[in-house]
Amino acid sequence: MTPPPVPSQPTASTAGTVAELGEFGLIEVIVPLFAQHPDVLVGPGDDAAVVAIGANQVLVSTDLLIENRHFRRDWSSAEDIGHKAAAANLSDLNAMGGRTTALVVALAIPGDLEVAWVRDLASGIAAEAALVGASVVGGDVTASDQVSIAVTVLGTCAAPVLRSGARAGDVVAVCGRLGWAGAGFHVLGRGFRSPRAVVEAHRRPRPPYSAGPEAASAGATAMIDLSDGLLADLGHVAAASGCSIDVQSAAFEVEEPLRAVGAALGLDPLQFVLTGGDDYALAATFPAGTTLPEGWTVVGRVAAGGAVVTVDGVAYDGPAGHEHFR
Amino acid sequence: MTPPPVPSQPTASTAGTVAELGEFGLIEVIVPLFAQHPDVLVGPGDDAAVVAIGANQVLVSTDLLIENRHFRRDWSSAEDIGHKAAAANLSDLNAMGGRTTALVVALAIPGDLEVAWVRDLASGIAAEAALVGASVVGGDVTASDQVSIAVTVLGTCAAPVLRSGARAGDVVAVCGRLGWAGAGFHVLGRGFRSPRAVVEAHRRPRPPYSAGPEAASAGATAMIDLSDGLLADLGHVAAASGCSIDVQSAAFEVEEPLRAVGAALGLDPLQFVLTGGDDYALAATFPAGTTLPEGWTVVGRVAAGGAVVTVDGVAYDGPAGHEHFR
């Protein structure tokens, strides 16, 4: 059912260090090592994998959050960090058009951490999971020098929406907040704690959890959640679908808190919208003429070939999205 | 829809640090925070959780391995570490009487790590997964100061065998190697590289993967995999089942490499058998008179009440099993 994995480059080099190769180069080295059995309907490379278990399509996805890389204990409360760790994973199944049933959480923590901190982290994870009716069903706790939080989600969907289904002529639409968490990150990085709305958005994202299944029902051809930033994530859709995407900057309403941050920091606030990560909004493509579900806004269009993403017809010259090891 | 979570103790204290409370105390604080929905058939506290998805019982379990806590890069090759990370997880589903279908792997690594090391780690994970016909279906890669490997496994079983089913009169049996990895750990810890058999057992455990489903079919009443050490893990069975377990030391064949390590280090080699962790053998209880599947050896008996584990009728006075933060 699934073709054997094929390296996307003839021979991926394994010389040198991870930093030299970069995150996506490393993934190209690793993924071909993983043979996929026939019960794997969707293997590595999408927001979640899909495994056939009995008559059901079971979705699974995992994310590992590392202290001082993905969160800072002096920027966010333990409860915030729990919400965010769960949200990042729940969002992955949302982006497949699915819904999470269960989470497992593996936690590495220093022995001198306060028990109350861990309790609040667990409360945050449980509260975020409850938003979609999911249960935290198990986990692991181990000692470590820094806090690491590995969350894996398990869920189901009627029919998964992949990154690879966008077709020329489709419209590109988004649902959820764009750029708020990224603006909050900028603000916190400069030592400020306001505007409160963007700082809160960084600490505790609000993924549009019903939007994924609704988009799937409405006929979305491709979907992805926005964790690296809109342009970077649309780049994954364009690459997987073998098409190009053009985004119209005039389609975005740049909201007041983003304009305030832009003015204060001397930055174009559109940059937050186009490249800010960690809001866990959704981007999807739909056949032209589709009546979009509530909350979705058309922001662009799919064209044939190219596998590139442009803004108003040209390459975007602002900062790129997030990549690890860079 | 979900009843509010009820703490399992009137008020578990959350004062102080994780090290002061200990691993199991911490788990008692966290687990009551996780409300379980009706589709959760087995929640936290067993080797794996069991979630109903359609007509199927889906098993899920997760383990996080941290560099210099669970493995050392100067003691084990990357491929060894991959095998062991996968084995620790596959073993959890084995201990439920299940079989793993899919794994996801979240990896945190320093940027200066060699790409070849990561490739070999991935190869080891894939090779161990292939032993049970499972696929690595997805993952996550992120930057970190030390190597962390979070593996989550997904699988199925006919009817899960829990820790809580042991009954007075049952026999206790084991399957797989006991104490080899622990003896290897002692040897490596003193700077030696032989006997090779125990060093290899530490580097690359050999869980008896067919034994779990076979024990379930044969009517095992309780089962657990041996990661913390036989007595410690039987203690989990005794506590969950509300019964006591007595182990007969004469039932164990203390094999030659263990005797050699004991003689060289001036230790009773039975200590490795009773308390050595990380072999991922299985211990199970069966109704008296059960014809045990091949590879299982009776080593003890279940008695009513007490929730304690004894050796030859008395408390064991050797070293205890492993607990994190201690």
Q: Mean pLDDT of chain A, nearest integer? A: 93
Q: Could you describe the largest sheet of chain A, including whether it forms a barrel? A: 6 strands, mixed
What is the third-level CATH name, the topology of the largest domain in chain A? Phosphoribosyl-aminoimidazole Synthetase, Chain A, domain 2
> What is the molecular shape of chain A?
globular
Q: Considering DSSP H and I runs of 4 or more, what fraction of the residues of chain A is helical?
A: 25-40%
Number of strands of chain A: 12
Largest interface: A-B, 84 and 88 residues
- CATH secondary-structure class of the largest domain in chain A: Alpha Beta
Low-confidence stretches of chain A: 1-10
Strand content of chain A: 15-25%
Order of helices and strands of chain A: HHEEEHEHEEEHHHEHEHHEEE
Please give the count of helices of chain A.
10
- Radius of gyration of chain A, CA atoms, in whole angstroms: 19 Å
Supply the CATH architecture of the largest domain in chain A.
Answer: Alpha-Beta Complex
Question: Going by CATH, what is the homologous superfamily of the largest domain in chain A?
Answer: PurM-like C-terminal domain
Distance between the termini of chain A: 36 Å
Short description:
Chain A has 326 residues and is of the alpha+beta class. Chain A folds into two domains: 97 residues, 60s Ribosomal Protein L30, Chain: A; 149 residues, Phosphoribosyl-aminoimidazole Synthetase, Chain A, domain 2 (Alpha-Beta Complex), CATH 3.90.650.
